[in-house]
């Protein structure tokens, strides 16, 4: 069996380290809030546009793919 001894006194060094860590965490949180990296901000999406006029074409392709899977596996 052991005895647990709780020492609530913190040394000055521990107080300074804790304050420094809190300060660094606050600075890091500020930087992360300002520097949000969104996909819309990326250079990879420059020149791309959303599908507008030919969106029906994708629905037809998906329908045909599903229809071909049904024919292959069900009507075999």
Provide a descriptive summary of the structure in words.
There is one protein chain. The chain has 76 residues and is mostly helical. Helix content is 55%, strand content 0%. It is built from 2 helices and no strands. The protein has helices spanning 12-34, 55-73. It is elongated, with a radius of gyration of 30 Å. The N and C termini lie far apart (73 Å).
Q: Report the uncertain regions.
A: none
One letter per element, helices H and strands E, the order comes to HH
Number of DSSP helices?
A: 2
Shape from CA axes? elongated
Our Rg estimate from Cα atoms comes to: 30 Å
Largest sheet: none
Secondary-structure-based class equals mainly alpha
What percent of residues adopt helix (DSSP H or I)?
55-70%
Q: Number of DSSP strands?
A: 0
Distance between the termini: 73 Å
Portion in strands: under 5%
Please identify the oligomeric state.
single chain
What is the arithmetic mean of pLDDT? 80
Task: Report a brief summary of the structure.
By secondary structure, this protein is an all-alpha fold. The chain has helices at 12-34, 55-73.
């Amino acid at each position: 069996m052991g005895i647990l001894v709780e020492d609530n006194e913190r040394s000055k060094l521990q107080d300074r380290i804790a304050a420094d860590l809190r300060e660094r965490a606050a600075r890091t949180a500020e930087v992360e809030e300002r520097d949000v990296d969104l996909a819309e901000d990326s250079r990879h999406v420059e020149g791309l546009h959303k599908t507008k006029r030919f969106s029906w074409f994708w629905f037809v392709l998906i329908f045909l793919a599903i229809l071909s899977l049904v024919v292959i596996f069900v009507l075999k």
